[in-house]
Amino acid sequence: MAKEIERAGIPVAHICSIITISQTVGANRIVPAVAIPHPLGNPRLPLDEEKEVRRNLLKKALAALQTPIEEQTVFS
Amino acid sequence: MSDASRNAKYRIVHYVNQFFGGVGGEEKADCEPFTIQGPQGPGRLLEKLFREGNVDVEIVATVVCGDSYFVDHQEDVLRELIPVIRGYHPDLVVAGPAFNAGRYGMACGGICSSLQPLGIPAITAMFKENPGVDQYRKTALIVETANNVSGMEEAVRKMVRLGIKKLRGEEIEFPKAEGCFEQGIRKNYSHAEPGCGRAIAMLLRKINGDPFETEYPIPFFDRVDPQPAIADLKGITIALVTSGGIVPTGNPDHIESSSASKYGKYSLEGLETLDARTHQSAHGGYDNTYANDDPNRVLPIDEMRVLEKELGFKRHPWYYATVGNGTSVDNARKFAKEIAVEMIRDGVQAVILTST
Amino acid sequence: MAYARPHAGVHPVTHLWRKITVTDLGFSSATRVENGKLLIDKGELTALLRSDPNIKDVQLAIARPGDSVRIIPVKDVIEPRLSRIPEYPIFPGVFSAWDPDSGGIPSGEIVSLCGMVVTTVGSIVGYQEGLIDMSGPGARYSLFSGMHHLVLDISVKEGTERHEHEKSIRLAGFKASDYIARSSLGGPLSSGSRETLINPTDPGFHGSEKSDGRKRKPGIAYLYMLQSQGLLHDTYYCGVDVKKMLPRRIVPTEVLFGAIVSGNCVSACDKNTTYHHQNNPIILDLLRRHGVDWDFVGCVITNENVTLGDKQRSSTLAAELIVSLNPDGVIVSKEGFGNPDADLMMNCSKIEAHGIKTVLLTDEFAGQDGASQSLVDSHPNADAIVSTGNANEVIVLPPMEKVIGDDRVITELAGGSSKCRLPDGSVAIELQALIGSTNQLGFERMSSRFK
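^ inputs. structure came back:
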């Protein structure tokens, strides 16, 4: 989906757990997530720490959107 | 239905472009669709070769449209022509051959693909580099031809051979064997041997350096050029899209837990966060306990709000969701295209896509 | 069958496998096999299962091959077996502690009850479970339609937490199988077939070294991937959740004893039921011609975890273990689909990087029209694939006279949809929802090709 949205003209930051899949299907700005059942969270952490993890992942995604790239890039 | 029991002739409708329809050349490519009773141009050869194959046919009508007119007004033309074609109650529809004429090939492919779901057998023919092949090979039977009209007789012969099978109601299991382009569609079948035996046999051949044939050739994935970076986040409208299946409680659009056939568009008006009361996961491919307990773990609305205030970007008031579990890549592509068109219209300038 | 005799001084683990076949199933006052029929004491079995405080009710039902019966939603299918090795139980580590690493696996005899299986049903989440049709077009998609089923329809008490709910049903299946095996196979046995399976000896010892100029037999290893992604996506080795395990070797015939059991439901078509693990045809084929057509150098099990880091770690370690066995080639079987395609490609590429050839067993998710890309990940080294079919292909299943379980969930099953019910009572459903239909251990004959 990332590839098609980008093809239409909108930059996309893809937050996903299995980045090899994202790389294979062709997303350009990739941000590795925590884990499949909770990509932007971690139930093992206390809530405020978990929210901080989420915020940081989003910040990475936003930074990725602001970074010029030539090819597929993983922002870890 | 065997030929012996059939008294009436088979009815064929033939589609051709402005040139083969006798209207004119490229200068007439904008001619609007019309119908001629009976065969026209290559249709006469078509009828003759069917009869030589002992199959009695009549081309009851020839539908003509200019190549440019068709591609410029495709939806309208199809909406007009399909009922016209149906009105002749054809047993078979033949389009082209289009050889290497790109717009003609697209028109032929488009017509055949539209007839297929209506249960009307339709075939066409074109050269391998015609864009119509890539576009329509999966949904239409396309006979392979030479790249120009010097291959007309050969092309029509092949179409007739295929056409006779379609008229007899035969299923075309392997298009390639009938002179058509491979459709690139996966079809299940029952092998003589179970998979484990096949795997060991294939491995022995591979170890020995003997030739073997993989049962699934790994595909090549195309790439899209990255969109330019956003210079400054302030004032930028950002939308969220997820394939993690976060939907309002009750899954009002009934998005399937696997092989999703649709996506949903949901409002974020007034929502500062998501919780188990208002949202849930419809995705069946992962343990969704954690997502159900706190949907922000997949669709991070809570922290997006925080960052919005901190960094000054604007939220798009809608998010899009589908379930990425076993969803076909083609469906995902289709959804994304539609979603992108809408988002562009609504002024979305960047997207964060979350997946599991 | 003749097998290469082990070299003096090396003792391979050897198991004698006896199979008692039953051709009918019924209820009676004492659980036993009589004249080829398995009779089950309903009361005794039900009481045994209800000793789990989470279980509210157990209904037992029988389904026979050819019956107009649909069993739904199926969680697991298990073959009752009895170990005749006192210190090595069936389902080791499940009911009592068992450590495969202290003392090794003892040789000895195991007995199977063939022709019947214990099948568990009862709604949990609904998405991931599947169905078995005992007749009609759906029946030809898996071997289970040819067996007699004792179906356990289990409901749990209100408020039972999901993970506890799943566990109760899972253990109930094993308890029932164990009870049936002990009760019916415990005494002296008449007839039945016998087979001796000799496991490969330790790595570093090549069964048939190059001698007198003859070409060495090819060495084949097996990498056995196990689903391990959370609730309804888990597998256990000797009672341990494999997501918590590192890749390791097993003695191949451990699977006969139920060393690997299923807590996995995803998806019905390509998850391995406990039965599939107990009867892994890759292990059995490789053992049966070991020392004859090839040297089966060993089996490694590995997991399919949910983080990229875990996937990289497991694939690196699994590849190292495989390499240490010094094979010429490896069969790799996958479980599930989607992100496990990434594990499959990592395993393949890391093994191939050592010049060891791989063949991968996988199903496909090519869309209902077959036009979509079948796997979500790929690698140029994955050039030898056996496909067990496109799981998205839709078939129409006619209504069955009887449903064991609850077929209202059919629209929610992975592979179903809100529109899958047809006006005449049939359902148009993907193969995805049929238990075992695209099994990636290669049990079935279905495959897929380009049209």
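Chain C has six helices and 25 strands. The first strand of chain C starts at residue 14 and ends at 21.
thumbs up if we can close this ticket
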